[in-house]
Design a protein that fits this description.
Layout: E1 4-11, E2 14-21, E3 24-32, E4 44-53, E5 58-64, E6 67-72, E7 84-91, E8 99-106, E9 112-115, H1 120-127, E10 133-134, H2 137-151, E11 154-156, E12 162-167, E13 172-177, H3 186-208, E14 212-217, H4 225-235, E15 244-245, E16 253-258, H5 265-269, H6 278-295, E17 301-305, H7 307-313, H8 317-324, E18 328-332, E19 342-345
Parallel strand pairs: 1-10, 6-8, 13-14, 17-18
Antiparallel strand pairs: 1-2, 2-3, 4-5, 4-7, 4-9, 5-6, 7-8, 11-12, 12-13, 14-16, 15-16, 17-19
Helix pairs in contact: 3-4, 6-7
């Protein structure tokens, strides 16, 4: 039986939550201090209808302080422009896309946050109520492992072969490859690879926070469509409600539609050009300083990094000092590569 475990890692400026499935990362939740709490999944707000698009059955809702969301409505529940309504965030904003809200009822007053979203600990327990939350070093290792796997494109399959996950503007493309998977019966080998790919793809899509239209390019020909459809329903069951799975098509692909709820994790970890962001690298450096500071009580520690990373880490250093004392410093090194991070005692 599949076992899920929960981990919670706290560091200055960031909290990371991890769910593992059979000891592999399945979900990664990251909250940073600078995130807007109004736009987190589950937050409840008073908003004001800024514009109504009847042809699209959608309305734009002003959440205040420049934040906006989109609300879909039924013909008999069309809101009025200027109307104040209470809403709940049902889909976090993505790059180039607004947050999605659902209407809870009429409201009064200016746009404002009514109730914050559940924190990461509460969200972890919602996902696996029977599990206990692990903290400390084990949680940090689990979060680092989850982050590393989320950043990968090609992922190994159990017993050989791999799959590649590549999001595009239109859809998420997944390619399954046999690789070095061996066996005398080619049909059996391809069937096992495809079944393994469905389970692995479901876990990784949850880990990466990806949804929308997903196209899986299965390996081989003459697929057992019913077996693959049954396996997909089990693999993607945790993503319900909102999952739609199509049959295997004539070109050997399976199409799915998965609900988009959270911001893709790569949008948190990467910059607009697809490189690891200065903010993410700064967080890594601060975690290293924190770990060394806890291990070397009283030592004065210096973190050396590229100038842009030092700039991103500057606001995090005072938080670390509050926890472990004012014995940490940053040194910007003009010749350092962006991902080069060093911590040493003075």
């Amino acid at each position: 039986m599949s076992a899920r475990r929960l981990y919670l890692d706290r560091s200055p400026g960031e909290v990371r939550g991890v769910v593992t499935l059979d000891e592999r990362p399945e979900r990664l939740i990251i909250h940073r201090d600078e995130d807007d709490p109004r736009l987190r999944l589950g937050a409840r707000l008073v908003g004001r209808v800024a514009n109504v698009e009847p042809a699209l059955a959608s309305a734009f809702v002003d959440l205040g302080a420049g934040a906006e969301a989109i609300l879909s409505f039924k013909p008999d529940a069309r809101p009025n422009r200027g109307q104040a309504i209470e809403v709940e965030i049902r889909g976090e904003p993505r790059r180039g896309k607004l947050a999605v809200v659902r209407a809870l009822g009429p409201a009064e007053g200016a746009p404002r946050l009514v109730a914050p979203a559940p924190d990461i600990a509460a969200e972890l327990l919602r996902l696996s109520p029977e599990a206990e939350i692990v903290t400390g070093r084990a949680a940090r290792e689990a979060a680092d492992e989850a982050e590393a796997e989320a950043l990968e494109t090609v992922h190994a399959l159990p017993n050989g072969g791999d799959l590649a996950i590549e999001p595009t503007r239109a859809l998420v493309a997944i390619d399954v490859d046999l690789g070095d998977r061996k066996g005398a019966d080619a049909k059996r080998v391809t069937r096992q690879a495809n079944l393994a790919a469905l389970g692995t793809a479901a876990r990784l899509l949850r880990l990466k926070g990806l949804g929308g239209i997903v196209v899986i390019d299965l390996v081989g020909r003459g697929h057992d469509g019913q077996a693959l459809l049954a396996a997909a329903r089990i693999a993607f069951g945790p993503d319900n409600p909102g999952v739609a799975i199509g049959p295997v098509g004539r070109f050997g692909t399976m199409e799915l539609s998965l609900p988009r709820r959270t911001r893709p994790i790569l949008e948190t970890l990467l910059d607009g050009q697809g490189a690891i962001s200065d903010r993410t690298l700064a967080q890594r450096l601060i975690r290293r300083l924190q770990a060394e500071g806890e291990a070397l009580r009283g030592a004065r520690l210096v973190g050396r990094c590229a100038p842009a990373v030092a700039d991103a880490a500057a606001n995090l250093l005072p938080i670390l000092a509050e926890q472990l004392g004012a014995r940490f410093a940053l040194k910007a090194e003009a010749g350092f590569a962006r991902e080069r991070l060093e911590v040493a005692a003075e």
